[in-house]
Design goal:
Elements lengths: L1 H16 L1 H4 L3 H18 L4 H34 L4 H4 L7 H18 L2 H15 L3 H20 L6 H8 L5 H26 L22 H25 L3 H19 L5 H7 L1 H5 L4 H19 L2 H12 L4 H11 L5 H11 L13 H13 L8 H10 L3 H7 L1 H20 L1
Helix pairs in contact: 1-3, 3-15, 4-7, 4-11, 4-12, 4-15, 6-7, 6-8, 6-10, 7-8, 7-20, 8-10, 8-19, 8-20, 9-18, 9-19, 10-19, 10-22, 11-12, 15-20, 16-18, 17-19, 18-19, 19-22
Length: 430
């Protein structure tokens, strides 16, 4: 039965990957896979009480991610409804694909470190919709956003969930994360960009601005646009600060930011008619939030959580240690590649559980193993579109085809990943 769990996960994975040929929405495949994995776990004869406790434990973690995602998407959509992103998009005048790619990637890299890779990817997709009209051009830029967001998140203690886990767990300190990982992370982003500088040609087509006005009977004022934009950005930046100060989960800070923004929009639009208010309020914006993406997230995370509770991921971690004879570089490189297939969070959690913090050596606090784990787990997920929270969010928002990403972006992501990993190893040998 436990083997069957893996088989169901693999079949579900292929159904998600082949969404377009099958003409079945990936959210449906993910939900079916997630539920079936846990159903098979129950039928395996494992202790019922244990399974219920495990499911509720994972559900608490998953729901915190989903509420975070829902809050971030709502804030971004609210800023978008007020045309707040025009403040940035109006400053980006270039239509040259190479120049635009560099601007978007650099913005994403540093935004991801300040916010986190998930929030940043949601924000950048909104920006891309304002800058690029052609769907496939936008997909390509969105794919590079995933690479840049994951690279940017790896060198910040708040930029990626796995880095945050290692930071909170005491394996790494803030300065060590920044000092040791910023250069490899930068290389992981720059190498794909350099390759594209010599291969990418042409210009992008800007969307017709009139399309953005069809939703509004009465467009917002300049004051309202600026206010909501700056409050929205401040609200997103406040999330990691709130987490640091209170040690509460990030979704709590996101909910607080959303609540404040909600109250402000109610006040500034109180004199408008109902039709105008509905387009510019949180209630109106919630209708535009992609709920299918949230359900896809739920399904895929449930499936991975089931494999973790059944012990499959722990077995895999133990096998890695045995196969590579304790070579920390090889183990972490493989963990990074595996994080493209299954979620990097349980992989890192499994690694944290398998290896104790030693007094000295590679496994000591701020040791080489933990540093390289943060980099590999953070950037390795870019190899596949469903290998990271940022990738899953972008896939859901832009309806990117799994196979298309595999053909167009995966090689570039892997080149960057191995270049960054090589840079880190080289830095350690000097």
């Amino acid at each position: 039965m436990l083997t069957l769990m893996i088989a169901v996960f693999v079949l579900g994975y292929f159904a998600i990957a082949l969404e377009h040929p099958f003409k079945i929405d990936k959210a449906a495949s993910a939900l079916i896979t997630g539920v079936l994995v846990w159903t098979l776990f129950v039928l395996s004869g494992a202790d019922q009480h244990f399974i219920e406790e495990e499911l509720l434990h994972h559900l608490s973690e998953i729901s915190s991610i989903l509420f975070f995602l829902l809050g971030a998407m709502t804030i971004v959509e609210l800023v978008d409804a007020h045309e707040g992103f025009a403040i940035i998009t109006d400053k980006i005048t270039t239509k040259n694909k190479v120049k635009l790619l560099w601007v978007i990637s650099v913005l994403t890299f540093f935004f991801s470190a300040a916010l986190d890779n998930l929030t940043t990817s949601i924000v950048m997709i909104s920006l891309l919709r304002k800058l690029i009209d052609d769907k496939y051009d936008r997909w390509f830029f969105a794919g590079i956003v995933v690479v840049a967001a994951n690279a940017g998140g790896a060198w910040s203690p708040i930029g990626d969930v796995t880095t945050t886990m290692l930071w909170i767990g005491g394996q790494l300190t803030t300065m060590t994360i920044v000092k040791t990982l910023i250069v490899p992370s930068l290389v992981a982003m720059l190498v794909p960009l350099i390759v594209l500088t010599f291969t990418l040609k042409g210009e992008v087509t800007r969307p017709n601005k009139m399309h953005g006005l069809e939703h509004y009977t009465n467009p917002t004022t300049s004051f309202e646009r600026n206010l909501i934009f700056f409050l929205g950005v401040a609200g997103l930046l406040f999330v990691p600060v709130f987490k640091t100060l209170t040690h509460l989960p990030p979704f709590m800070g996101m909910m607080l930011s959303l609540g404040v923004l909600w109250a402000v929009t109610e006040v500034i639009h109180r004199s408008k008619n109902n039709e105008d208010k509905s387009n510019l309020s949180v209630i109106g914006v919630l209708r535009k939030v992609d709920t299918a993406s949230v359900l896809f997230f739920l399904g895929i995370l449930l499936a991975v959580a089931g494999l973790q509770s059944a012990g499959h991921l722990a077995i895999m971690a133990g096998n890695l240690n045995e196969w590579f004879g304790g070579n920390v570089y090889a183990i972490n490189i493989v963990i990074g590649l595996l994080s493209a297939i299954v979620d990097n969070v349980p992989l890192v959690a499994g690694s944290m559980g398998m290896y104790e913090i030693a007094a000295v050596g590679d496994f000591a606090k701020d040791g080489v193993f933990w540093q390289f784990l943060a980099f590999c787990a953070g950037t390795g997920g870019s190899a596949l579109i469903i290998g990271s929270a940022a990738g899953v969010a972008v896939m859901g928002l832009e309806k990117i085809d799994f196979v298309w990403y595999l053909k167009k972006i995966s090689i570039l992501a892997l080149i960057g990943y191995f270049a960054g990993a090589g840079t880190y190893i080289l830095m350690q040998s000097l």
